[in-house]
Amino acid sequence: MGEIAKAVIITHGEDVDGIISAGLLCRYLNEVINLSNLESILVSHKNFDNLFCKLARNSSALKGKRLFIADLALKDSLFVKKEGEGSVIEKIVQSCSSLYWLDHHKTSKQMDFESYGGNYISGSEQSKSASMLVYEECLAFRMGEEMVADDSEELALIAQCNDYPEIFSEHSCFKDGYELQRAISFANYRDDDIFLDNLVKSIGFYQNWRLMIDDYLVKHKSLLDFADAYLEKNQDIVLINDYFIFIFGVHPTLPQKETLRNLRGIYQGKVSAIVGIFFAPVLNALVFQGYDGKNFPVDDLCCRMNGGSRDGDGGFSLSGEVDWSDFKIAKKKMVEIIVNYFAV
Ligand SMILES: [Mn+2]
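Above: query sequence and manganese (II) ion SMILES. Below: predicted holo structure tokens.
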């Protein structure tokens, strides 16, 4: 039987900021406060509630442990009280020896969280990734001493660029974030938790994480090349009700946010709407205002499709009965959805 972990890091396993903030927390825990036994848990959007419910139910396992949670939003669902017992987050805070929550997503629950005894760190400035918070709060103070070859600040900047591209797209670390995200997205697609876990450790223990990324991307080059070719081939502009709509198909191994960001850069201002189709296992459509002056009803369309949307950025789930990976079929079906929307 292994030793019991004394510190647990819980982070967002699907993106650059989540992985880097966990890696940097590892550095802090290992060197500064010398906790040898670490456990890291990677969370996806899909299993978030499940994991936290499990932690609350099994609260005796948290006894004596220090919990660090990074790049995850303090969601309202954690604060729901059930009859006769406290909320999930209340139980977790009260079971462990300490809980630090480092995050930059909007929350209205900070006061409640702190009233249970949790420590919430969000930084005083806006636009600061979780990794930058960890760097500044836990690591920055020791810089300039003997840590000559330390790339902690660079890692924090990579996460910063990836989370805030509109501010940092010209930064020299910007491209590194894309490579890292590609590997992370691919690993998530394959449920490759071992790779993701090793990546956190590789960063945390000052190993060559860049080499690890390169090796992974080279190892899976053929599928990644296929995904790139698929995207390049499967794009079209259709005309519906006087709206020019750019539709494209995305292989699920590609990072969603970054792929969309690149294509939006090209088509914004030239079309009325931009529609990305992500086929199984993702199975969703992301829809964006194209800003050609015609004001395509993105929010209303997504709402009608039982999805969500705000200020021209939205999406909805796709039905599993259609083969969305065949772009001809996918495009036809998407056109049908939009035509039906205008017909009612
Ligand atoms: Mn983040």
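The pocket of manganese (II) ion is lined by residues 17, 71, 104, 129-130, 163 (CB under 6 Å).
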